[in-house]
Design brief:
Chain A has seven helices and no strands. By secondary structure, chain A is mainly α. Chain B is elongated. Classes of the chains: A mainly alpha, B mainly alpha. At the A-B interface, helix 1, helix 3, helix 4, helix 5 and helix 6 of A face strand 2, strand 4, helix 4, helix 5 and helix 6 of B. Chain A: It comes from Scophthalmus maximus.
């Protein structure tokens, strides 16, 4: 996360500080939305693909586009401002690089969803690949749209009409993003090799508890075949031991009683 | 299903060798059909169950059933599907093979399917590795660690973004239900095992260079398209045909001969480096190795072409020819090859050099080709190009093949080589040793270093190898920078020369003889130019002198010309401007009868060095004409480069060549 180092309440920098903070917040939310979009996109074509998923994708996409447009406008206007002080410019450029990378990711994901939606049409559910997923992407979409709870009423419109309309909208949006990327390159010249990031090379683990359970899951799935077997073996051995101990104690009690 | 990349594509993104992807996708869609596909079962983990797991044996039986193939074939096919990434194993996820037992697999989600047009982005890989590191620090394997560091270096500007995105993806994943999270993790991991394989494994995603045109796309039916089809069919009709018995017979003979030497079809001694990672085989078969292997020597006996194409074989053959004193044939052939494959800038000089060394009458290493070929070659040399010596080269090649090759195979040289040839033992490596070998793989020498070594070797060969000069002649021009052929130098003897009338005008020229002889040659040329016949050229060449410094000669003579001296006529033929000075030829004539008597005595006992270390700037000119004439002379003399004693016929006949 690019840190804002200058907390000095300089008069001329206050405005740009605020601009930086705004830009960062917007960028953060864009990155979040792009990440969620990727998760949703990975479900397309699988057995959990449904109109709902497509709808969620659409909403996420629209949110992403709105955010992208506002960040673009924001950053472009600031970077074209020649009077920007050097440090501010550096930080703006960092934001710029992050923004363009996330736009590229979004573009790729949108193209993939577009063509996959083409092939895996929802009309024929038998061709949806059985990937092992069970739940949909509702929670992810809720996170993307920053809604506490997603109440989606499935709109039972005829599939054909909606899909073709969807496709044309999507095509437009893809080309919009394309243009945005082009415009960005044209308007502002950011030398990528001059940009230095602030953050560490390795990200810190976020929460240990969850990681432990996930690790457990992954370990489990490494030997699921042996796991039941081990358990069975263990139980059997335990039972045997228990029986032996019981027998031994009974015998000893008998001996004690009858001796 | 090919995912089109609508982002600005700079072309060359198509990967033609993975055209099987479309077909694999069709098969997969059939396989995963809940009714007619492979039957799936739920996978039981400690905490939860995940559906849609399939066993290896079910997959194989389905494939064998569907395509009517046997189990082994089904195994190969199944392994291919896994290697491409359409199915991933749940246990032992790093080995991408199908095991014919109850081990579990699952279908990959279409988002992670390998695509024809979408390159796998390093940014995504960096995000994936960062995510794994977030989940548990230190979980990255060694090669992943290295990749991570490398990506950190190369994508440094994006690194904040990558870390942020990794965190966000991780958080978004946490929103999902646990089983889905596990499935997604497995999917992503499998995707990266396919596309960034660990070292020592073979990736099915290896393709060659990217191509500009999508081979899977349907081609538009433009007029060009039909034009191409028409040309193709016309050429097919006009192609010459051979009787199938003949062609098949040739194929069978070829296969029978080379069967034992093919590393795929038979054992490769000691071991195939691609399989066992042991490079002994390559070391034993290096181009300049002292002792070749028996297989290699056997290969030389198959045909003359084989012998020549192997550098070690060629060396052996060269040695044999040296003993037989017929090394000029091979040298000529090599010179022609050099001309054919060399750079265009040096072509002209090389052609001249070869002509002077091998083809000209009285050349030091004269080769014996018939008159017709000689005529064709000489005519062609007027406008030299890469293939001008092709006819002569073919003639010499056939000569060597029919004559020398047979004798070589019976010669003591060959028998000696055969006796000394080594036959290595076969390696027998255990699995552990193979892994050890794989770890110890080292890159070979850089091609730059190899090229340098080759150049040094060639220079050494050129410097050391004494050439068997069949004709004693001093009439060769040294070409300092084309050190291909070499001879024994005899520089000082050139200075012992009779004084000639116009020698006083050019005292600084190191070999006055050449002046005289050049004048003679010029006179001969004048005579022959007067006759207008190309037949006079061989005569002109015979008494021609050997000038040691070629740039010296024309300059000094030009100066003499300016002063109206006799050698003007020499340059008459070299530059068009001086054709008018033909009138002075009268003075030359008296000298010409002398020349033939002068020339022979000097022939004896003089080996001329073909390669000489005279710096081209050996200019000791008469002072007067040094300044303004230099550039002009140089420009004019360039046309007559090196053509002082053995006059290249194209230069004397075609005036435009005189100005270079």
């Amino acid at each position: 996360m690019p840190l804002v180092n200058n907390k000095v309440g300089d008069d001329c920098t206050v405005g740009t500080d605020k601009a930086l903070a705004d830009g960062e917040a917007l960028l953060q939310s864009l990155i979040k939305v792009v990440a969620c979009y990727r998760h949703l996109a990975s479900c397309v074509g699988g057995c959990t693909d449904s109109l709902q998923l497509r709808d969620e994708l659409r909403q996420t996409r629209e949110k992403a586009q709105k955010l992208a447009a506002s960040i673009c406008h924001h950053l472009t206007s600031h970077l074209r401002d020649k009077s920007l002080p050097e440090e501010q410019r550096k930080e703006m450029e960092l934001l710029w690089v992050a923004f363009s990378s996330s736009l590229e990711l979004l573009h790729v994901d949108m193209c993939k969803v577009f063509s996959m939606g083409d092939i895996f049409s929802l009309a024929n559910t038998a061709t949806l690949v059985q990937t092992g997923l069970q739940g949909g992407g509702s929670e992810v979409a809720a996170r993307a749209l920053s809604l506490p709870d997603l109440n989606q009423a499935l709109t039972p419109t005829p599939a054909a009409g909606l899909e073709s309309q969807e496709r044309s909208t999507m095509e437009q949006e893809i080309s919009q993003i394309d243009h945005m990327i082009d415009d960005m390159e044209m308007k502002v010249n950011v030398l990528r090799w001059m940009v230095e990031p602030y953050g560490p090379q390795y990200a810190d683990p976020l929460s240990s508890a969850d990681s432990a359970s996930l690790a457990l899951l992954s370990v489990d799935e490494e030997q699921p075949a042996q796991q039941p077997l081990c358990q069975r073996k263990q139980i059997f051995a335990f039972l045997l031991l228990f029986t032996v101990v019981l027998l031994a104690s009974t015998l000893s009690v008998c001996i004690v009683l009858f001796s | 299903m090919t995912i089109r990349n609508t982002l600005r594509d700079h072309g060359q993104r198509y990967r033609p060798r993975i055209a099987c992807l479309k077909k694999a996708e069709k098969v997969l869609l059939e396989m995963q059909d809940p009714k007619t596909g492979v039957k799936s079962q739920p996978q039981r983990l400690v905490i939860t169950t995940i559906p849609h797991a399939i066993t290896g044996e079910d997959i194989l039986s389905w494939l064998a059933d569907r395509f009517q193939i046997d189990t082994q074939e089904a195994r190969n096919f199944g392994s291919m599907l896994v290697a491409l990434g359409y199915i991933y194993p749940l246990q032992d996820h790093k080995r991408l093979v199908i095991k014919p037992d109850a081990s579990l697999y699952r279908f990959q989600t279409p988002y992670f399917w390998p695509t024809q047009q979408w390159p796998v982005e390093d940014t995504d890989y960096a995000i994936y590795l960062a995510k794994r590191n977030i989940r548990k620090k230190g979980i990255l394997e060694l090669h992943e660690q290295e990749q991570y560091n490398r990506l950190h270096k190369w994508m440094n500007h994006k690194w904040d973004f990558i870390v942020m995105q990794a965190k966000e993806q991780y958080r978004a994943a946490k929103e999902r239900k646990k089983p889905d999270r596990v499935v997604f993790d497995c999917q992503e991991r499998a995707y990266w095992v396919v596309h960034r394989p660990p070292p020592g494994t073979v990736s099915a995603m290896d393709y060659g260079l990217d191509r500009r045109i999508d081979p899977n796309a349907d081609e538009e039916k433009t007029p060009d398209f039909y034009g191409r089809i028409m040309i193709f069919t016309q050429q097919s009709i006009m192609r010459p045909r051979v009787k199938s018995s003949v062609s098949i017979g040739a194929l069978v003979k070829y296969c029978a001969t080379y069967n034992g030497h093919d590393p795929f079809l038979s054992k490769c001694l000691p071991s195939n480096p691609w399989i066992t990672d042991d490079i002994t085989y390559w070391n034993l078969n290096m181009p300049n190795v002292e002792i070749p292997t028996k297989m290699r020597v056997e290969r030389w006996t198959f045909s003359f072409g084989e012998l020549l194409s192997d550098p070690r074989g060629r060396d052996d053959f060269r040695l044999f020819l040296k003993k037989e004193f017929s090394g000029e044939n091979l040298a000529f052939w090599e010179g022609c090859e050099d001309l054919k494959w060399g750079t265009a800038a040096t072509m002209r000089e090389k052609a001249e050099q070869i002509y002077k060394s091998f083809l000209a009458r009285g050349a030091p290493r004269w080769i014996n080709i018939d008159g017709k070929t000689m005529e064709i070659t000489v005519n062609g040399l007027k406008h030299p190009h890469r293939y001008v010596l092709d006819a002569a080269q073919t003639h010499i090649y056939m000569l060597m093949k029919k004559d020398s090759f047979g004798r070589y195979l019976k010669s003591p040289v060959f028998k000696d080589t055969l006796k000394k040839a080594v036959c290595p033992e076969e390696h027998k490596y255990s699995d552990a040793q193979l892994e050890q070998n794989a770890k110890n793989r080292r890159p070979s020498l850089s091609p730059i270093v190899l090229r340098q070594q080759e150049k040094e070797h060639r220079a050494k060969m050129a410097a050391n190898a004494p050439v068997d000069i069949t004709q004693l002649c001093r009439y060769t021009t040294p070409v300092p920078h084309l050190a291909v052929y070499s001879g024994i130098s005899d520089f000082p003897s050139a200075n012992a020369s009779p004084s000639l009338p116009f020698l006083a005008h050019s005292p600084a020229c190191p070999s006055p003889i050449s002046v005289a002889l050049d004048s003679t040659s010029a006179s001969e040329r004048r005579a022959e130019a007067g006759e207008g016949g190309a037949a006079g050229i061989p005569e002109a060449r015979a008494p021609a002198a050997g000038s040691v410094s070629r740039s010296c000669m024309p300059l000094s003579l030009r100066r003499l010309l300016k002063r109206g001296c006799t050698p003007s006529t020499m340059f008459a033929s070299l530059s068009p401007k001086y054709h008018s000075a033909a009138g002075t030829s009268s003075r030359i004539q008296p000298i010409s009868p002398d020349q033939p008597s002068q020339a022979p005595p000097r022939r004896i006992g003089n080996f001329f060095q073909i390669k000489v270390d005279i710096p081209p700037e050996c200019r000791i000119y008469p002072i007067e004409s040094e300044d303004e004439d230099e550039e002009e002379n140089r420009a004019a003399s360039r046309g007559g480069v090196g053509a002082k004693e053995i006059i290249c016929p194209w230069e004397s006949l075609t005036p435009q060549n005189g100005t270079g």
